[in-house]
Amino acid sequence: MSQDEDRSALDASGVATDERSRNRYLSGLYAAVRLDKVSVRGLPGGECARYESRGVVWCASLAARGTESHSKMLGWNSAARSAIVCREKLKDTQRGIVVTNFLPLTLISAGLLIAAFAAPSSPSNGLLLVANKGAQNLGLIDTTAGRQIATVAEGGVTGHEVAASPDGKRAFVPIYGNSGVGMPGTDGSTLVVIDLRERKVIRTIDFGHGVRPHCAVFGPKDGLLYVTTELDHSVTIIDPQTLKIVGSVPTGQAESHMLAISSDGHHGYTANVGPGTVSVLDLVGRKTVTVIPVAQHVQRISITPDNRWVFTSDTEKPRLAVIDTATRKVDSWIALPSTGYGSASTPDGKWLLAALPEANAVAVVNLATLHVIKTISVPPAPQEVVIRPDGEVAYVSCDHNHQVAAIQISNWGVKLIDAGRGADGLAWAK
After folding, report:
1. What pLDDT is recorded for position 108?
2. Those residues with Cβ within 8 angstroms of residue 35's Cβ, 6 or more apart along the chain or in another chain
3. Of the candidates 176, 179, 178, 180, which has an alpha carbon nearest to the alpha carbon of residue 188?
4. Does residue 94 surpass a pLDDT of 50?
5. Which pLDDT does position 111 carry in this prediction?
6. Are both 325 and 391 inside the same structural domain?
7. Are strands 343-345 and 329-335 parallel, antiparallel or unpaired?
8. 92: burial class by Cβ within 10 Å (0-12, 13-18, 19+)?
9. pLDDT tens per residue across span 382-420
10. Can you tell me the distance from the alpha carbon of 74 to that of 44, in angstroms, rounded to the nearest whole number?
11. pLDDT score of 79 more than 70
């Protein structure tokens, strides 16, 4: 259990002598403390929330404005009103709480943490979501702190990919099954909906039969959720408000594993792994436009911000297919140092980053020339690439090392963030 999960389990208990005194003395000042083997129960005219896990106590104390006598009794400076942490022993009396062996803490400004213990908080600049395939959970990463701050069990085997709602409040994780694409194994039939604030599954959407749902992408204009459903040779459409299936688009191919959508929301492109093709979909008319032959076997797919190029990796040769969306044909190939996998373009249209699992590296492609200009070393088996909306950082999931590599676009520097087992699908939740 993460520290934030510990904090989310807090229960408040009032300790004022009566309701009138509590109402009289409560203020908007919270103090949050994490100490080993410390017990906090309460303060006159206030209330305290407490939760203990593995010898660590999380506590929040709502301090009292109080009278001068209260301030003196507790050792407060009447102007500062510091919170009090009490070690080991507090004595209840008929008149209230007697504090023994107290330790004043530094004042925390009023209002800073008023809601901190009402529900787990998320970083104001957004969260990186990672589908920890091996751990069968969704990881929530605070990229500023550089750590995974919470996990949410998916309740199924297992999620490979994740999509975040445009408002950043929910995550959608298709439960694929226990095998790789085209391999024998279980056939997933559900998608779980996770509340990112409450950090729990709030709904399971059932496709009604085994479909191996895999890649979920939000339509940029209609706000609908498009999910590849391989065994049905289709993309299923879900209304994220009602959480109901509202339609589907046929791909005309088996193993439609990954999906990219144009910025205008008109067209979708699926990488059909075993057939080695890309299906072009009319998402408005909900029909297949054409199927483009690419290679013997392909994986992953991405599209440039201007919708000009679509990229998919030939998994048998070290090259990346460049598909012209106007002609709907393979226009050229980008030579890679090793076979490629997931890729993503920066929002300014300058760079394409492509994972190279066998080389433990990421290739940087200049989109003006369509040539690799640099390779960046990362932990073993890089899988998926997602670019932060501001274009400053690329995040790459590294399956074998259970980490995410954060690549600074300005200087190509790398920082590593620990994730969960089998880190795979990524999404940014604002």
Report:
1. 36
2. 56, 57, 85
3. 176
4. no
5. 40
6. yes
7. unpaired
8. exposed
9. 999 999 999 999 999 999 999 999 999 999 999 999 999
10. 9
11. no
With respect to residue 112, please indicate whether it lies within any of the assigned structural domains.
no
The token duo for 57 is 């106590």
* Least confident range of 42-56, 132-146, 231-245: 42-56
For residue 411, what is the DSSP state? T
| Prediction pTM value | 0.75
209 and 144 in one domain? Answer: yes
Claim to verify: residue 94 and residue 148 sit in the same structural domain: no
Task: Check whether residue 27 and residue 147 sit in a common domain.
Answer: no
131 and 77 share a domain? no
More confident residue, 14 or 273: 273
Looking at the structure, tell me whether residues 69 and 144 fall in a common domain: no
Residue that finishes a domain, picked among 46, 69, 104 = 104
The answer to whether the beta carbons of residues 39 and 49 sit under 8 Å apart is no
Q: Give residue 92's domain range.
A: 3-104
In a domain, 111, yes or no: no
Q: How far apart are CA 135 and CA 424, in angstroms?
A: 11
* pLDDT at res. 387: 98
The per-residue pLDDT for 233 is 98
How many domains would you assign to the chain?
Answer: 2
* The residue to which tokens 């002598």 are assigned: 17
Residue 50 and residue 171: Cα distance in Å, rounded?
29
Tokens of 84: 């009090």
Residues 72 and 216 in one domain: no
Sign of the dihedral defined by the CA atoms of residues 387, 169, 151, 172, in that order: negative
Helix%, strand%, coil% for the chain, nearest 5: 5, 50, 45
Residue in the structure block whose two tokens are 């559900």: 190
DSSP string, 300-311: EEEE-TTS-EEE
Contact 264, 282 (CB under 8 A): no
Phi and psi for 232 in degrees, rounded to 5? -95, 0
Same-domain pairing of 88 and 141: no
User: Contacts for 402-411 with beta carbons within 8 Å, 24 or more apart?
Assistant: 402/132, 402/134, 403/379, 404/128, 404/130, 404/141, 405/362, 405/378, 405/379, 406/143, 406/146, 407/353, 407/362, 407/376, 407/378, 409/346, 409/351
The helix/strand/coil state of 423 is: strand
